[in-house]
Design goal:
By secondary structure, the protein is mostly helical. 91% of the residues lie in helices and 0% in strands. The longest helix is centred in the C-terminal third of the chain and has 61 residues. It holds the Pfam family DUF308.
């Protein structure tokens, strides 16, 4: 957080300051009320894991779709190259 405050050209500076403040407040709550905050900490961690899992699944489907598109394009390029080679061979035989 200190680096984000001291360097105005730092990328995502606002987000780093925001998350630094949130983490500092969360740490203070854990220190001042450790037993009361255990349930909140578990709930927060559980929600974070659910969100991360959903994002991982979405990313996996996007990667699979992108991989299929690249494979289709590469297959098309391979077919075009084969046709080009065969047409060059036909020209060489005819000459």
């Amino acid at each position: 957080m200190i680096a984000a405050i001291s360097d105005p050209d730092m990328p995502s500076r606002g987000w780093q300051i925001f998350f630094g403040i949130v983490v500092a407040i969360g740490g203070g709550v854990l220190v001042w009320a450790p037993f009361d905050s255990i349930a909140v900490l578990a709930l927060t961690a559980g929600c974070a894991l659910i969100v991360i899992g959903l994002l991982e699944m979405i990313t996996a489907f996007r990667v699979r779709r992108s991989t299929a598109e690249v494979r289709d394009k590469m297959t098309g390029l391979h077919a075009s190259a084969s046709e080009f080679r065969s047409s060059r061979g036909d020209l060489a035989k005819g000459a």
